[in-house]
Amino acid sequence: MVIKSIVVRVPRGLKPAINAAIFVQKILSLNSEVIIIKDGKFIHVDKDITIGIALAVQIMDLGIVKDDEITLIISGLNEQDALTDLEEFLLVEENKDFAQLFVK
């Protein structure tokens, strides 16, 4: 299990639907269990029962904006790689870098 607090740098955070949808796509592609915590509220992603659209709405409901601190708890196969992948997305600051995330 890995636990890390991250200050979100993605332009506009995870409130816009497109940002939340990309983040959900990344989470659902992992072979790990993910918990996202912000201000005492949390989302536990169980890939067996989680539907992408519902997860995106839950993430948007957390109200995560740029410069908010969130905590990720990841456990499972390749958890360190999973953390790196999610962190890479959350730390993108410039629009040109953000656009490149669509290409991967």
Give structural notes.
This protein has one domain (2-94): Histidine-containing Protein, Chain: A. The longest helix has 12 residues, at 17-28. The protein has four helices and four strands. It is of the alpha+beta class. It has a four-stranded antiparallel sheet with strand order 1-4-2-3, covered by helices on one side. The protein has helices spanning 17-28, 52-61, 79-90, 95-100; strands spanning 2-7, 32-38, 41-45, 69-76. It is globular, with a radius of gyration of 12 Å. Helix 1 (17-28) packs across helix 2 (52-61).
Write the layout of secondary structure elements.
Layout: E1 2-7, H1 17-28, E2 32-38, E3 41-45, H2 52-61, E4 69-76, H3 79-90, H4 95-100
Antiparallel strand pairs: 1-4, 2-3, 2-4
Helix pairs in contact: 1-2
Structural class from helices and strands?
alpha+beta
Provide the succession of SSEs.
EHEEHEHH
CATH class: Alpha Beta
CATH architecture: 2-Layer Sandwich
- Beta-strand share of residues: 25-35%
With strands numbered from the N-terminus, the spatial order across the biggest sheet is 1-4-2-3
Distance between the termini: 26 Å
Specify Rg, calculated over alpha carbons: 12 Å
Shape: globular
Low-confidence runs of at least 5 consecutive residues: none
CATH topology: Histidine-containing Protein, Chain: A
- Percent helix, as a range, is 25-40%
